[in-house]
Amino acid sequence: MVQRLQELFIEIGKRKKWPECYENSVILRSRIECYAEKLMDSYDPAPMWNFQLYLLNWLDNVETMEEKFLLLNSLSYFVFFNREQCNALYLEALHGPIFKWLIDINDLNILDENIDEILSEKIETTFISAATDSTDISTMHHICGFPMKRTYIWHSFINPTDDEDEINRKIDSYKNDLHEWKYEQIVVLEDFVGSGTQSIEVIDFLGKFPEWKILFIPLVICPQGDIAITEHLYTKEYNHISYEPISKLPWELILADDRLPDSNKLPDLLNKLKEYARNNYTKVIGTEIGGSEGYLGYKKTGALFAKYTNCPDNTLPLYNEKENKNWNPLFPRSAR
Length: 336
Hints:
Rossmann fold, two-stranded parallel ribbon, 13 helices, elongated
C-alpha cells in the first residue's frame, strides 16, 4: 500500500469511535489492498490506471477525516467487474441462457448423445449481435471459442428522425441480409442496462423481425431496468422475443428514490452516502445549475457499479464525474 494511504488508515485507526455502520479500519484496509492487487487492477478509460493513486486523488476532493472514511466505506458496497469476471459473463451467457434457449426453440433432446455437436451446429446458424456499441461481441466470440463472421449493433440503426418509409427500408435491408447469411435465430447482448431506456428502443426495433426467434441478454442489469424490460415485453406481446439477464444488481446496492416497497431499507452506511452525495452534488459537478437533481446519475438510478471498460452514467457522479476540473473521479467515465 502506498505510504500516504497507509498514513490515512493510521490516522483513521487513532479515532476511538466511529458510527456502528462503518467497517473496522483494519478490515477496510485489507479490503482496499485486495481491491488494488486482485480486483481493480485495470480500468480502460484511464490507461495509466493505478487504483491506489486514483483512490488518494478521489479522497483529496474532501477535507475532513469523516468524509474520507465515509467514501472509503462506500467501496465495501461498490460492485466492480474486472476483465476476468466480464469474460466469465460471456461464458455464462453461452452455456446458460443461449444453449437453454436453443434447446427450447428447436425442441432438442438433451439426452441425445450428440447434443454437443447439435448445439454447435445451431450456434453456427445463430446471429450473435450487440444492442449498443458498448458491447464487445468480438471478445465474446474469442472467449467462447467460435469465429466471428458478421454482427450488428442494433441501436446504431435507430434514428428518431426516420419516417416510416425509411424505417421499413432499413428493416427490409437487414432482413435480406439475415436471409442471405442463412441465420435462423438471433441473440442480442448488452453489457450493462441501467434504466432500460436504450434496451427498450432496441427491443421495439427487434419487434419488427417476427420471422426470427430472438433472445435479448443483458450481462449486468439494474433492478429498474429489469422491471422496465419485463413490463414492456409483457405489454407489447412480442412472442418471438425472449429475455434472460445474467447478473442482476440487488436493490440493496441501488440508491434510487423510487425503490420497491419490499426494498425500501438501505444499509445505514448507504443512507449516509446518499445524503452526502445529494448535499455535495454541486461541488462534484462544479456548478449550481440544476441543484441536486442529478446526484443519483442518469434517470436517478443510483447505482454503485463499474466495469474495467467504463463506469456507466447510472452510477453516482460522486464516483465518475470528470467534466469538473476541480473534482478527481475514482472511475473517470468515458462518454460514448
